[in-house]
Every structure is written in structure tokens, then in C-alpha cells.
Design brief:
The protein has about 140 residues and is an alpha+beta fold. It has one domain: Aspartate Aminotransferase, domain 1. It is built from four helices and seven strands; from the N terminus they run H-H-E-E-E-E-H-E-E-H-E. Strands 1, 2, 3, 4, 5, 6 and 7 form a seven-stranded antiparallel sheet that branches. Strand 5 and strand 6 form a beta hairpin.
Length: about 140
């Protein structure tokens, strides 16, 4: 397995969310939790100190590197929420164009405020990413 520091923990996601501040960030994180639960059908688990993940998958690359990671999830950061769409969203331009205000990284979307996006489109992105990931590696509940 890999030496990844992002591993599943025993921290209660509800306690993590309840401790978030300020109140607006906490409220948005609770809304994201509801969106992810509905889109994935999975309950949340904490991965590392700040990622709330839904589902898990084990991977092994041709290089021999292997590991385990959450299948999708988010991290409620101070300035913006990081949304993890694995294995990426290269072919999701149609949905990204409809999402609303966001920034994109390799496998992350960054959203300052939920009011800036279409939550239904976010749910579709989450589901499409999860389905694509499942085509390559089995995805299981965490």
C-alpha cells in the first residue's frame, strides 16, 4: 500500500461538522453533506483531518503504487470548499458550464459559497464522477 497520509479515521463526521466555524461555513458544510449522501447513497467517514469522504476504493497503478482513498467527498476549508471529484472531470464540460462560479484543479472543484452554484448540477457531477470511478475500480461503502 502507499504511504498516503490521507487515510480513514475514527473521527465522527457529525462532530467535525458541528465544530466548524463560522456559522455560515458550518451551515454550508451540512448542506454539502446532505448533497453527497443523496448523490452517493453512502454515509460519511473522515479521511485525514479534514476530508469528509463518501465510499472508498482501492487502487493499483501500473507503476505498482497502490492505496485506498475515499471515492468522493469534500473539505470545508476557511476560504472555500474543496470538492473531490475522482477520477477527475475531464469529460464533464457540459456540467461544469452549468455549475456556476467555481475554480477547478486536477480532481478538485473549489467553491466559495453554495449560493454561487447550482446544487442539482453539483449532485450530477458527484454521481457522474462516482460512476466513472466505479468503471475502473470497485467502489464500496466506507
Amino acid at each position: 500500500m502507499s504511504d498516503s497520509r490521507t487515510t480513514v479515521t475514527d473521527v465522527d463526521p457529525a462532530a467535525f461538522l458541528a465544530a466548524l466555524g463560522p456559522a455560515e461555513r458550518r451551515s454550508e458544510a451540512l448542506r454539502l453533506d446532505a448533497i453527497f449522501r443523496a448523490a452517493t447513497g453512502f454515509g460519511p467517514r473522515m479521511w485525514g483531518p479534514s476530508i469528509i469522504g463518501y465510499g472508498r476504493y482501492a487502487y493499483r497503478y501500473d507503476s505498482g503504487r497502490s492505496g485506498e482513498m475515499c471515492a468522493t467527498g469534500f473539505s470545508p476549508r476557511r476560504a472555500e470548499h474543496a470538492i473531490y471529484i475522482l477520477p477527475g472531470y475531464d469529460d464533464m464540460g457540459d456540467l461544469l458550464a452549468r455549475l456556476g462560479r467555481h475554480r477547478a484543479g486536477k480532481a478538485c472543484l473549489y467553491i466559495r459559497r453554495l449560493a454561487d452554484i447550482d446544487e442539482d448540477v453539483l449532485a450530477l457531477l458527484i454521481r457522474r464522477g462516482l460512476d466513472r470511478l466505479g468503471e475502473r475500480w470497485p467502489v464500496t461503502p466506507a
